[in-house]
Fold this protein.
Amino acid sequence: MSIIGKSNFLVGYVKQRKSINKFDLMKLYLLRHAEAQSTYPDEKRSLSERGKNTTIELANFLKAKGAIAIDEIRHSSLARTGETAQIFNAEMNLGLPLNKITGLAPLDDVRILANQLQIEEKNIMLVGHLPQLSTLASYLITKDEGSILFNLNTCGLIALERYEGYSTNKDNNPLWVIQWMLDPQLYVS
């Protein structure tokens, strides 16, 4: 797996619009939690040492690239997502609020969260699980709740941008574009 660049469609769209200012887009980062210990109960599983180290390596990789702009980090109620969010926040020196939210459990209805994201103004990171994050990314792109286009390994990350004023569907929802995708194979030493 590799980093996916900007789509040709978006490049053509930007040329057509002449410019996109910062108020036209919102950045969304979908981070799957890092590797957790194999313990029970599931909701209390904490990160393994490998998971903690992978999260630190991800943060260091992104910090070195200057590739991320976040205003808030939100995570599910399960311990491993909160721990992944906390380590990432600390290693990036972000000092951001970490907010536990509903709607990020593995089998939650992605349409509810997607509707909230349509009007979100902040650049946010959601730390969650499979299949939820893969389904959410696919739904934002296609509006098909049954398709899964992306596979996120533990501590994998997808970056999306929401563009206002342009829609590819009849309900005038904003256009979501995948900017890049990062797999741990690319940054873990």
